[in-house]
């Protein structure tokens, strides 16, 4: 479970400061599926980076299961990221010279998993996203939707408890968007992940059970009755 208390994030801009987050209080229970939306520059990516331990708050605390991520040493924070948090980005971030299989295996290297087990687990992860037969393909030989599914396999192969996605369908056409969202939702349900997703897509936001709207660095959370993962991937 995440507990954020009065989280402020400022960035230097010349002599001035940009206040990207202005005192966020937010609790994200285990197994939650939270969608973050809001206008450009509202602080969505900044919040996701703090949840992922990719950056630290300027003030306040970001606790994951009782540990204040901002107080960990760089080495410990890296360990938490490697073990517990899977990331999926808009731009896939696959290594172009590695095959799908090798890309997925890279997530297990920092955890000290041996070669044979890496191979097996990466194969299983690719199978779970329906890409077993594409394991030997390079990213350039895959469609956008398939590349994002490789990225999902890479995020999940380490069996994290948290999955963070920043505009995971932003680079995809509508059909592929549905394919990728369907995959993310299936994995969220099957693995009991805590799933936090930033999206500009209002159709996706409407289907979230909990919606966090970030505007000018402030958050408002709404529960949406009737929304949920069971509805399938509608595109209207
Ligand atoms: N590394 C940085 N250095 C300086 N300012 C930054 C940095 N990252 C973000 N900002 C600023 O912080 C504010 C929030 O940015 P953030 O990227 O979190 O917003 P966002 O809601 O994700 O926007 P978008 O929808 O455009 O991705 C913006 O004013 C942005 O310019």
TrEMBL record:
Superkingdom classification of source: Bacteria
Tagged with keyword Nucleotide-binding: yes
GO cellular component: membrane protein complex; plasma membrane
InterPro entries: AAA+_ATPase, ABC_transporter-like_ATP-bd, ABC_transporter-like_CS, ABC_transpr_LolD-like, MacB-like_ATP-bd, P-loop_NTPase
The keyword ATP-binding is assigned to this record: yes
A Gene Ontology molecular function term of the record: ATP hydrolysis activity
Record keywords: ATP-binding, Nucleotide-binding, Transport
Membrane-spanning parts: none
UniProt cross-references to Pfam families, sorted A to Z: ABC_tran (PF00005)
Domain ABC transporter positions: 2-234
SMART domains assigned to the protein according to its UniProt record, in alphabetical order: AAA
Name this protein carries in UniProt: Peptide ABC transporter ATP-binding protein
Lineage: Bacteria, Bacillati, Actinomycetota, Actinomycetes, Kitasatosporales
């Amino acid at each position: 479970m995440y507990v954020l208390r009065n989280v402020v994030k400022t960035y230097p801009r010349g002599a001035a400061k940009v206040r990207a987050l202005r005192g966020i209080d937010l609790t994200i229970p285990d197994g939650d599926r939270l969608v973050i939306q809001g206008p450009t520059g509202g602080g969505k990516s900044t919040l996701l980076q703090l949840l992922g331990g990719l950056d630290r708050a300027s003030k306040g605390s970001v606790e994951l299961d009782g540990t204040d991520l901002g107080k960990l040493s760089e080495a410990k924070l890296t360990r938490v990221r490697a073990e517990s948090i899977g990331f999926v980005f808009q731009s896939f971030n696959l290594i172009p010279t590695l095959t799908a299989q090798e890309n997925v295996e890279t997530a297990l290297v920092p955890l000290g998993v041996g070669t044979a087990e890496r191979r097996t687990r990466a194969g299983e992860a690719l199978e779970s996203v329906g890409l077993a037969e594409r394991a030997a393909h390079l990213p350039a030989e895959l469609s956008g939707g398939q590349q994002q599914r490789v990225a999902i396999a890479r995020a999940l192969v380490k069996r994290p408890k948290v999955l963070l996605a920043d505009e995971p369908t932003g680079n995809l056409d509508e059909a592929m968007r549905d394919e990728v969202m369907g995959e993310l939702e299936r994995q969220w349900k099957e693995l009991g992940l805590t799933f936090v997703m930033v999206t500009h897509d209002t159709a996706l936001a409407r289907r979230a059970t909990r919606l966090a709207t970030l505007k000018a660095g402030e958050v408002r959370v709404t529960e949406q009755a009737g929304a949920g993962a069971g509805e399938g991937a509608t595109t209207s």
